[in-house]
Amino acid sequence: MNLKDLKLIYQENRKEIKNRDEIVKELRDILGEKCVSTNNIDILAYTRDSSLISLNWTIEGKIAGLPEIITWPKDEEAIIKVLEIANREKIPIVPFAEGSGVVGGAIPIQGGIILDLKNLDEIIEINEKNLTVTTQTGVNGMNLERYLNAKGYTCGHIPQSLYTSSVGGWIAHKAAGQFSTKYGKIEDIVLGMRIILPEGDKITFEPIARAATGPQLDKYFIGGEGTLGIVTKATLKIWPYPEKRNLISYAFPTMKDSLEAVRETLRENVYPAVVRIYDADETARHFEHVEKAKDKVMTVFVCEGNQKLVDLEDEITRKMCLKNSGIDCGEDPVEHWFETRFKVTETSMFPPYRIVADTIEVSVMWDNAVDLYHNVVETVKQVKGNLLITAHVSHFYPNGVGFYFTFGGVPGKGMTEFDFYKSCWNATIKAVIHSGGSIAHHHGIGINRSHFMEEEWNKGYDVMKKFKNVLDPNNILNPGKIYEKTWKNQGGNE
Ligand SMILES: Cc1cc2nc3c(=O)[nH]c(=O)nc-3n(C[C@H](O)[C@H](O)[C@H](O)COP(=O)(O)OP(=O)(O)OC[C@H]3O[C@@H](n4cnc5c(N)ncnc54)[C@H](O)[C@@H]3O)c2cc1C
Fold first, then answer.
1. Cα–Cα dist 291/41, whole Å
2. Cβ < 6 A, ligand 1 pocket
3. Local structure of residue 242 (DSSP, 8 states)
4. Domain holding 205: CATH number?
């Protein structure tokens, strides 16, 4: 099979490596024979990330991006040498961890070399006094969490993709786990990092408790999405494994009631580790067996940690739920959530029927939360071919929330799947901007959102581009993302 015969979605962005055979030889001399591949089967594996539309494309024999060389460096020195070649030859480099990103971040839209970071998988040490773990960033999330649990700790960062994502990918996309209301997002958890910059310089940010040493440069690299450097090592916060867990669930008449109950709980300085509000459609989908939740808004809480504190949190959470018309549904819905929380099989059931679906997460301050929810639902319903738009809220802060929308539908006549997909995305993001929200909560920018970055950041976007140019003058690291409006330039029905 010649991969070039397959329909390439981002064809117009692609650049070929002129002297590929020489580059492959040079890379093999540096990395070793087995750590460089040009085999079709390997190339095919790196043509996409986990964006849901990629499944539709796969069924139709289409590929998103087409890299030319796959590499698996074993250490930082090898990464530096690959970057040296890429700068000399102006070849795009796409850092790739587990490919579970869902916004096109790891898609090699300009071709080039894939830098797979899975070999950087050593968990270096736990510091029990400082409550930290230091690890290489290619480590798989579940392997890290199991390692910590066995020693009596947790990182508190449990994304639904725990089994299929890496520490480096979390940092790159500013990820959030299911327990984020207590433990924070990854940017709250990272205390130190080592980064290899695009031109090969290494910088290390040592873990510090707090500092007043000028602007916090390290934070700028969290969310870099492989465009500003390769994160090779990180020190993360850890916590003693919780001594007690209380499971609470209430059903509310409306989203507004449920949001109010949670807001008032957080105002009391009470942070359940897990809080999840499902709108009525998602409640019907996930909790159809809970009679008391019929036509209502199911809300689940997990309070965990010190036994006495958990009991107090439980008491205050229940008080706020009752005050806002909540109906106690017991522990069973939360147990059901625990049993099904990593199950994502339903998403792969859609593409064979030509249904295009995806999820979009955004954030908003409390005062606009209810409006944002209704605005997005009403707007996306208007997209031609839309069959489904639902939401849950799964990340909470004293000042606002993170919403997670799911859409699905069938492209209308004359529309490609990609057109429909982009229309739903664009409609959602425009409604979010209109409602005063932020366009991404934890999946990142990638390709899907870069054309909205100017509206999100205003003048700040120019500063970001300048910063990128200084660090990466040859634009070799993950080009076509964050700073370039790939979807807009590429056509489709905007
Ligand atoms: C079923 C499912 C459930 C999910 N649930 C969640 C969830 O609960 N919470 C959440 O936040 N996300 C979730 N995601 C999204 C995804 O898991 C995250 O975006 C994750 O952080 C990506 O990690 P990865 O290791 O797979 O990175 P990849 O997808 O391989 O890469 C993502 C981006 O990071 C860059 N990158 C990777 N490693 C490095 C590094 N070491 N240095 C610099 N750049 C790097 C890549 O270039 C790319 O731009 C989910 C995805 C799926 C498919």
1. 49
2. 49-50, 94-102, 105-106, 117, 137, 159-161, 165-166, 168-170, 172-173, 175-176, 225-226, 230-231, 344, 442-444, 478
3. P
4. 3.30.465.10
CB 43 within 8 A of CB 67: yes
| 8 Å CB contact between 484 and 139 | no
pLDDT of residue 2: 87
Instruction: State the SS3 of 343-360.
Output: CCHHHHHCHHHCCEEEEE
Dihedral sign, Cα of residue 13, residue 19, residue 25, residue 30: negative
Tokens of 303: 């309070």
Please state, in angstroms and rounded to a whole number, the distance separating the CA atoms of residues 403 and 276.
Answer: 10
Strand ranges in 263-313 using DSSP code E only, listed in sequence order? 274-278, 297-305
In this structure, the answer to whether residues 44 and 61 fall within a common structural domain is yes
Residue 432 lies in a domain: yes
For the chain, helix (H) and strand (E) counts, in that order, are: 19, 20
Rounded to the nearest 10°, the torsion over CA 423, 427, 433, 439 is -50
Q: What is the pLDDT of residue 4?
A: 84
Q: pLDDT band for 491, please (50, 70, 90 cuts).
A: low
CA distance 444 to 171: 10
Number of domains in the chain: 4
Note whether residue 280 is domain-resident: yes
Atom of ligand 1 nearest to the CA of 481: 49
Q: pTM here? A: 0.97
Phi, psi of 333 (to 5 degrees): -60, -30
Out of 116, 142, 157, a domain closes at: 116
Could you read off the pLDDT of 79-122 as tens digits, one per residue? 999 999 999 999 999 999 999 999 999 999 999 999 999 999 99
Q: What are phi and psi of 325, to 5 degrees?
A: 70, 25
- Given a cut of 60, whether residue 493 has pLDDT beyond it is no
Q: How are the residues of the chain apportioned to helix, strand and coil, as percentages rounded to the nearest 5? A: 40, 20, 35
CA of 173 to the centre of ligand 1 (A): 6
Distance 155 CA to ligand 1 centre (A): 17
pLDDT of residue 241: 98
At residue 430, the pLDDT reads 97
Nearest ligand 1 atom, CA 100: 26
Question: Residue 12, exposed/middle/buried by CB under 10 A (0-12, 13-18, 19+)?
Answer: exposed
Residue pair 300/273 in contact by the 8 Å Cβ criterion: no
Say if 494 falls within a structural domain: no
User: Whose alpha carbon is nearest atom 40 of ligand 1?
Assistant: 168
Chain position carrying tokens 């958890």: 189
